[in-house]
Write the structure tokens for this entry.
Amino acid sequence: MVAIFTGDKTTKLYKILALFSLSIILITSIYGIVMAIYRGIEVVGETLVDVEFPPIHIFPFFYMKPVTWLNFAIITLTYSSLELGTAVIAKLSEFKKNLIKLSLFVLGSLAVYETLFNFTLWSGLISRDSIKESLNPDLIINPFPNPDIPWNIVFSTKLYLAILIICVYTFYFIKKIESNSK
């Protein structure tokens, strides 16, 4: 653990942010899996959407759903890891960098589609539920393409949005490294 606190202030900050984010990811993921098994929930991501943390009655001024904490942590871990790994990325061959950029472009394209699809579906289902006067956006599920394994729309939208942000930023980050090395 001593190695965490070596380096300049910025490096220390990125290391601490990376460890903190990784901790949140692990804790949130374990909580979601354990609660889904314990409660017998069959909707993917529901256990990370149906509660607030810290609980509103304990801390009414600042609280978020576990899926929001997870989203925040994934993006922060990626950012911190890229900043800490700048030298390693810079040393990669042009072929490897191009392969990574191609992969990011393809994955980012898929994430754009899924994010737009989820927002569109979410909007339609919110409209449907508001007409029925049973509106709770946190309970909306996406039964497509497999109705046996539905996904909570809040959960899936936040994760696809995180993937999109990561792909765009990582692509930009690699391009920035390449332009600085010329």
Observations:
- Helices lie at 9-39, 66-84, 86-91, 94-131, 153-181.
- The first strand starts at residue 141 and ends at 142.
- Residues 94-131 form the longest helix (38 residues).
